[in-house]
Here is the input.
Amino acid sequence: MSKHKEEKTNVMRTLEQKKIAYTPHEYPADGPVDGVSVAAYLNQDPEQVFKTLVTKGAGGGYYVFDIPVAENLDLKKAAKAVGEKSIAMLPQKELLPLMDYFKTDAAEAEVLTGLTDRVEAAKMLHDWGAKEVVITHNTEVLAYDGNKVYTCPIKARNLSGRTGRGDTTFAGYINERLTKDIPTALQTATALVSLKMETPGPFTGTRQDVEDYIKLMY
Here is the structure.
């Protein structure tokens, strides 16, 4: 198992934090992308590897199904299961327009768009339909609403609590955006994750702790 920090994912860090043994697997970036081929390469039972499919019902509702990668979704049975007259697969280009807030980290944004520039990646994701894009990086959090790019720096004084950064950031951002503007939500979310990163495990502090951190660090 590689010990290089840059090769570890958040899942790997969580397992190590909880002292759970695991074996990482790698898959070549230029290999086949279908689920059956990936399962075979990793010596996994295709019945234990799943794909997520998004559909739209005749009534206008959206439904998500997880099925084994080697199987095909029976649209008639699926429609019956959700009480629709009929359903159809949702084209990928129609997924992002369904999202008011779309969060990704810098590496994921590069995979999706092919761009290493976070600002340009955010603009492309917005062009694809996402109404508000948030991209996290180890130095900052970026938000883009189609009109302006906003950024706020990460100011953690140590990195002992790196696991869960993305979830913490997005949860804080969405919570604030319910009532606040983008700059306020972005600063609160960035301060929250900066403070969370200084202690292992999930954030257990209070709103006052975050507000005090903002006064101290921002």
Summary: Confidence is low (pLDDT under 50) at residues 1-6. Residues 123 and 138 are 20 Å apart (CA to CA). Strands lie at 50-57, 62-68, 87-89, 101-105, 132-136, 140-144, 149-153. Residues 182-196 form the longest helix (15 residues).
